[in-house]
Specification:
Strand 16 and strand 17 form a beta hairpin. The chain is α+β, with helices and mostly antiparallel strands. The two termini are 70 Å apart. The chain folds into 3 domains: 91 residues, PH-domain like (Roll), CATH 2.30.29; 92 residues, no CATH class; 92 residues, no CATH class. Strands 1, 2, 3, 4, 5, 6, 7 and 8 form an 8-stranded antiparallel beta sheet that branches. Strands 9-10-11-12 form a 4-stranded antiparallel beta sheet.
Length: 302
């Protein structure tokens, strides 16, 4: 069952045609629907008719021409249509509805219906293009507004010399910690797409202390090489620029915050032996920074 089976035909024709005096009677049918036509007719190629009538179904954009023509002494309606071809991309074919009564009526009805459908398709295409144009303009406007909101908020809070540490960053989105001119810790979140901004502040005088807490564990790895490498110690570092910048701007508290925000965990790797089967022991420092401060909301140290 096709999607157009529920359509009601605009008009229909049923009949028969005999090729020659002793030829076989073949059905001739035509159903004109709002979206397509279908029926039974002769294939007409190189001025030769098929031996028997065959079913067909065509959309209006496929139809090129419709006209009356006498073929082998029989008046009928000829429908020229385009069909995709693997070899030539598209080819023109013909269907002949021979013996159809009132061929002029069916020719005019087919042409008029095709013209109406073609106009509807043109209007639908123009409406689609206009809709896509408006959607594109809307997306561009939203993009500009999102970027403007993001930049306005970020520039309001941060100057080029403001110490900060990014926790997360995406398109027109950011979450970071920064120290303002009053030496307070600010936890800033900006979402340009949703046009949302939030900023939590811990004043300088509310900060009590900070400490490192967590686990230090060891991982052993076996290797089957014959090389000898020295040990190494990586991580466990803080940004000298952040410490120096924070100290220059805010003294000891600024240096502390700079070290706090830029701290990276320590990873110690022992020397590998020169045996055919050796092992590597890694010390993983997964301690985190804990900040102790007084909460005005909870009325206690957190």
């Amino acid at each position: 069952m096709n999607w157009y089976d529920a359509e009601k035909p605009i008009d229909s024709y049923y009949g028969e045609h005999r090729k020659g005096l002793f030829g076989k009677k073949c059905p001739i049918k035509l159903h004109i629907y709002p979206s397509h036509i279908e029926g039974v007719g002769y294939s007409f190629t190189s001025d030769e008719l098929s031996n028997e009538s065959e079913p067909f179904s065509l959309s209006y954009p496929q139809i090129r021409e419709v006209y009356e023509e006498s073929i082998a002494g029989n008046m009928g309606v000829v429908i020229e249509y385009i069909e995709d071809s693997v070899v030539t991309n598209s080819s023109t074919f013909k269907i002949a509805l021979l013996g159809i009564s009132e061929p002029a009526k069916w020719t005019q009805l087919l042409l008029r219906t095709k013209e109406e459908i073609d106009q509807q398709n043109i209007q639908a295409k123009l409406a689609k293009e206009e809709h896509e144009k408006r959607e594109k303009e809307l997306r561009e406007t939203q993009e500009r507004e999102s970027l403007q909101f993001y930049n306005d908020c970020l520039n309001f809070h941060l100057k080029k010399t403001t110490p900060n540490y990014e926790l997360y960053k995406d398109k027109h989105k950011i979450a970071l910690i920064y120290i303002n001119e009053d030496k307070a810790l600010n936890f800033l979140k900006i979402d340009g797409q949703a046009k949302e901004e939030s900023n939590g502040i811990i004043p300088f005088e509310k900060i009590h202390y900070y400490e490192k807490a967590g686990d230090i564990h060891y991982v052993s790895e076996l290797h089957g090489d014959y090389s000898n490498y020295g040990g190494s110690v990586t991580g466990g570092q803080f940004s000298k620029l952040a410490v120096a910048g924070g100290g220059l701007l805010f003294g000891m508290m600024g240096m502390t915050a700079g070290a706090l925000l830029s701290y990276k965990p320590t990873q110690t790797e022992a020397a590998k032996t020169n045996f055919s089967l050796d092992s590597t022991t890694k010390e993983i420092d997964s301690r985190s920074i804990i900040l102790n401060f007084y909460s005005d909301i909870k009325k206690q140290w957190c």
